[in-house]
């Protein structure tokens, strides 16, 4: 389990004690600690918070080549679409009950029984060719080929496509963590643009990419 809040880890530990099939391998206060442990000790299931210092849960998952089953445990509902885009087993909103926790574990067990013990990273953005965002109360599917650029705007992130502009309430860092580096490039701390665009303009700045 990975969570920077000791109280949250205590609750998870207590819930796990009610499920005899769940054995806790390690408890981590941040993602970098978990990365070290995972490199030495393969696991079947990872309980993962999202908002943590140094490295978010979303960014951490994107560093894993062979992923265990993942259940996100967080107080932020806006990352649910991204979590499932990463093939998470479940997404638990804090505070959650033992019953809801048990349902999530059952989902992970069923998913593991129907797939290899460790999940290969088949849910990469490049293979999916799209990502999902929620804006104005609706869910939108954005093809990478249609996405021109992404810009940080405070608590929101502007997503500009060939046809529309969206402003989901989503952290810039969380969204760009889903973007394949072979298709997108970060040209500024608040800008990521599509590499396939030959010419693109931002205010008075002219950026040109040529194959």
From TrEMBL:
SUPFAM superfamilies found in the cross-reference section: CheY-like
Superkingdom classification of source: Bacteria
The keyword Membrane appears for this protein: no
Keyword Transcription regulation: no
Keywords of the record: DNA-binding, Phosphoprotein
GO molecular-function terms, A-Z: DNA binding; phosphorelay response regulator activity
4-aspartylphosphate carried by residues: 49
Protein name per the record: DNA-binding response regulator
Species whose genome carries this gene: Spirosoma telluris
Lineage: Bacteria, Pseudomonadati, Bacteroidota, Cytophagia, Cytophagales
